[in-house]
Amino acid sequence: MKNKxxxxxxxxxxxxxxxxxxxxxxxxxxxxxxxxxATLAAAQKELPAGTIILKSDSASLADAQALGxxxxxHTEKVDAVFLNAGIGQFGPVESMTxxxxxxxxxxxxxxxxxxxxxxLPVLANPGALVLNASVVAELxxxxxxxxxxxxxxxxxxxxxxxxxxxxxxxxxxxISPGPITTPIYNKLGFDADAQKGFEDYMASQSxxxxxxxxxxxxxxxxxxxxxxxxxxxxxxxxxxxxVRLT
Length: 246
What we know:
The protein is of the alpha/beta class and about 250 residues long.
């Protein structure tokens, strides 16, 4: 990754932050985005000096469409992009509201779509793009209806974009993590007992009976963004500890 410039959306926490740390350690110039002032400040301290940290909200159409111009202030080209920012809100179908629908589709689908559109003028040829979906895109799992629909849309986008962008030299792939220890599980609105029960259930679905780590996912992203995966395109790679097999 030495001398490569890589952009990671949602790069101030969880999978995005772990990927930023890994790529930085391997010599990449990393640009991360986030929207929370506290996590932006924390990431500034955790990531190496020289990391570019941009305040950009994936929920905002204006921010998504301006991302390319913001990036161009710091670099003329980006070698690879990890469109990682996303949210999850879970509950039975009768509890879901139009706001849940709008929030998840705006951040998980509309955001990355228009972020990519704005980034195309600075995306290098050859270049690489990874989209972050979820194993629930292909599994039927109660309480995930809207979230799963957004991630199925991301998987579909990955395939279509792979075909459309290949002539420009841009490889597009998607990852579908299963249960991974990230801050998303602390934002579900459950009480302590319900939270513990949910986490125990999710861990039990893995063949390894544990959650995956953000570092394990970061290594997969690094592979897909690097030249080591130069003949992999249009794929959706699951990293779920075997959840889809149980």
